[in-house]
Structures are given as C-alpha cells and as structure tokens.
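In pairs, describe these two lines:
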Amino acid sequence: MLETLRHVMDRPVPVYGMNCGSVGFLMNPFDEDNLPERLVATQSAVLHPLHMRATCVDGGIHEADALNDVFLFRETRQAAKIRVDVDGRERMPELICDGVLVATPAGSTAYNLSAHGPIVPLSGNLLPLTPISAFRPRRWRGALLPSTATVTFTILETEKRPVAAVADFTEVRDVVSVVVRENRTRSVMVLFDPGQTLSERIIAEQFSA
C-alpha cells in the first residue's frame, strides 16, 4: 500500500486499498462485490508525508519521503547516542537509545505505537517524536511537536556507534545527521468505506485492547 501511495503521490489519483494480508491499517475489507458502488460512497483523507534529508559519513546526501515515519536505529550491538534539535534549538544534548522516530498522524498507529508513542488524530497538526528503547534519559517518553517543526538528529560517536536512517522503506546507512520535517508540498488521497474513515480508525485504535 505504501509503495502504491508513493507511486501516485502528486497525481490526482485517489487510492482505494483492500486488505488481502494481516494488518492493512490504510486499507478496506476485501470484497469484490458491488465495488463501483462502494467507490462512489467512499470518504477521503489527504495525507502529507515527512521529508527526510540524511547526511552520511562519506558526505553523501540522501532524501526521501515517508507516509508512516522516519526512524533512526543503531547498526551494532552498542546503543546510539543522538542529539535532538527542534527548529534549530537544542532540546536534548544526548539521547542514548536503540533509536528514535518521527511519525505522521497516520503512521502514529504503526511503529510509533509499538514504541509506546502516542496516537495523534489527523486534525491535530502534531508529529510524535518517540524514542526506541531509551536508556538515558531512562524515563523520557518523547514529545508531541507541531506539524511545522523541523527536527534535526545529530549522531554522536559515529565511528563507534553507527546509525541508519529509514523513511518508510528507504534505508540509509552510516548517517551523521538527519533532518525531518513535514512536506506540505506533496500529498496523496486515500479512500475509505463509510464508517471506516482514517480519523475513525485512529480514534478506535486508542480504545482497542
């Protein structure tokens, strides 16, 4: 589904997905009956991706967009050490962790939720910033940032503690810094059956067992 959304992004082509697998949070139940009528009755949600700009140890720069999340993760057995800046201001001089992520509202129910981050509504204009297995500060659970925020991750001790960055399914190894912001210049429209809109699913997920 994410690959399909990526292919049609910036084109006036809405996407109606049907779940033939196991999770399929962005998809509708699989049913081929009365499909034209179902499509006419759908409700839409417009999604904006995150933009990742990653700089590597060798000086290379890699850019990618993500509809779910951008996450950083340690490449070796040793924990990563990462400095976190928001809008050019240092907010955390050293986060010792397995990794850290920034999620979109739609992606807040995915890896972000598994890492104990908050689910945020589509209308909230918020981006969850969530640590992955934080060691220091041990009790830091992350932050909710305005959707206009620019987050810069700077990797400390890059030779001893290498880190990879991932934007959905685009992975970049041995990064020294990663800048993440919402990309409002790009969008994609997703269609849902009545009563199963993305906003409803995000709310329902917060009450699920």
Observations:
- DSSP finds four helices and 15 strands in the chain.
- The longest strand covers residues 89-103.
